[in-house]
From TrEMBL:
Keywords recorded for this protein, A-Z: Transferase
Keyword tRNA-binding: no
Source organism, top-level taxon: Bacteria
Official protein name in the record: Glutathione S-transferase family protein
Length: 229
């Protein structure tokens, strides 16, 4: 059975950077499932699988097409119950939904402002034109003005992670003694920053930095597959 993961990439097709794709990469590794990565640019997404999605990740698992990283994680737990769970039960699913909303509303917006020009510069010309037009319309400012405002986000970014920092004094992962999908949600956000801007937002002695490095090393070091920007 052929398993395909459609993943957002820059002009360099080996450089996949989407936080949502990284959640799915980690989820598949957690389950020990083999797959082939199909890198796509922003403007190529509408044509994949006959127009099966407007966003990636998109997972083809045999005859099944599943889009959205959270939906993919739920699917993987249902389809492969004999492999390590991504949620550890209904409580884990509920926790993951909270973490997902916190990450996207708090971390993703800050990273967008920090990395927006770096993301633009990773893209090929057609995707650059799309990215500039769509992001400037969505955010109501030029990429350059957004990036200028993003400089203030760098200094305050570590404070946004204080809840995670406090929790890591008690347990090594959000999932407890071992990682679960909520860990991969936050990892995906920080991996997005690492692979696009490479901006240092955490001190080397920060427990969150230690946790992130442990996540990079998980599952045979799959997080290292793309180097830091």
């Amino acid at each position: 059975m052929t398993r395909l993961l459609y993943a957002l990439s820059g002009a360099d097709k080996t450089r996949q950077f989407s936080p949502h794709v990284w959640k799915t990469v980690m989820a598949l590794a957690h389950k020990g499932l083999d797959y082939e990565t199909v890198p796509v640019g922003f403007t190529e997404i509408p044509a994949i699988e006959g127009g099966g999605t407007a966003t990636v990740p998109l997972l083809r698992d045999g005859d099944r097409l599943v889009h959205d990283s959270f939906a993919i994680a739920l699917y993987l737990d249902e389809a492969y119950p004999d492999r390590p769970s991504l949620f550890g039960g209904e409580g884990g699913k509920a926790m993951a939904r909270f973490i997902e909303n916190w990450s996207q509303s708090t971390l993703h917006m800050a990273i967008t402002r920090i990395a927006i020009l770096d993301i633009h510069n990773l893209l090929g010309p057609t995707d650059q034109a799309y990215f500039r037009r769509s992001r400037e319309e969505r955010l109501g400012a030029s990429l350059e003005d957004i990036a200028a405002a993003g400089k203030a986000e760098i200094e305050g970014f570590a404070k946004k992670l204080q809840p995670l920092r406090n929790m890591l004094k008690i347990q090594p992962f959000i999932g407890g003694e071992s990682p679960l999908f909520p860990d991969y949600i936050v990892f995906g956000a920080l991996q997005w920053l690492r692979t696009t801007a490479g901006t240092t937002v955490l001190e080397g002695d920060d427990p969150v930095d230690d946790w992130f490095r442990r996540c990079l090393d998980l599952h045979g070091g799959v997080g290292h597959r793309v180097t830091a920007a």
